[in-house]
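Translate sequence into structure tokens.
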Amino acid sequence: MKRILVCLFVMGGVLLARAQEEATVSTLNFTALQKKLEKSNQAIQNEKAKLKAKTWSDRGELFQDIADVNIQFIRMGMSSAETKLYMKEPKEIKTEESEGKQRQIYVYDRINLIFENDELVNWVETMTIHPDPLPMALEAYKKALELDVKGGNFNKAIYQNMERLKRQLETNAILAFTNKDFSKAVICFENIMECSKTEVYNNYIDTIVIYNAGMAAKSAGDHQKAAQYFKRAAEIGYGGSDTYYLLKNEYMALGDSALALETMEKGFEMYPDTFLLLIEIVNYHLAAGHSEEGLKYLSLAREKEPTNPSIYFAQGTLYEKMGQTDKAMESYSDAIKVDSNYFNAYFNIGALYYNKAVELYDIANEKTDTKEYNAARIVADNELRKALAPMEKAHSLDPKDRATLETLKTIYYRLQMDDKYQEVLKEIKDLQQ
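Result follows.
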């Protein structure tokens, strides 16, 4: 899943670099912008002005400036000394501890800057002209494009402003992630996609934005939206097999196991070298009890990773469910050949012998003739002795496993191995203390 974090980090790096370039743009004045907003509000109420595309394009630019007025000279990662070059000395410096880290909060008139190890990691605006100006900018540009009949240079200007708007929205999305406000991050990404739906972009597809919208929705616990965006990302081929894996998880969270399986199979079809998806398909069939399907995919998994003992073990469990104990025993033995310390395989081999012995004891107990009973009892004892070595090996690998200890206790008792029986009783008692 490292790719997911890289996407956001790289995106953030590009944004912050651009933000640094834009820091040299002329200074925005808070009071002047307040007055401009008042005039713009009046203009869109005026019967003539509100029908002019320029009224709305100017309003869009205004809201973008309003969004930047408190943060025009700052960027993530900048030092406190660099901040002071642009914003002078703070009114106050506070220190707090968050998640085991010391933070310094530089308090300014309309914004608090948060530093860790002298690097800007977050900020909180304490005074704004508008609580959420960027969606307002988007709506203004959409209205301007609706009213404009000329296109040409006007559309080019709108496009340039939209590019800036996208970067602003991306910055807000990253900040929302930092603050764990994932629902807000989703909205930011959705607004970016809305930008791309306008005519100046000719329905350009923001692939990384769609993917990151899925990640934000996933983090917000909105599985419906997460599935929607991961499905779209998969359709356009973004994120490779990871996207299918994430989409499968969202369908499972929504309780749609059929779509989850369909997604895994499609992903494996698209990316046949992806072992993770293959194992997910195997696990699905194991849980669902689809033995034949499970074996089919396990054969593929074994070809891809012949030194993975869990594959042979899973194959053994499927054969066991199908009542094919000889093949199960063979698969468990193959797991041990690959990993001589594979606990589960030793335990299951011991359990196979143990369960067979139990069946033989039941047969012996049905005998009414003493001679026949004793003969049948010897056969059962001999089968039970076969369980000793694998169970004792399992015990040596995990001395505190209760199931192994209880099984050994019964074996020692049945075979009248008193010393061993007393030892295992003591081990069980010690575990209970």
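Note: Strands lie at 92-98, 101-107, 111-116, 119-125.
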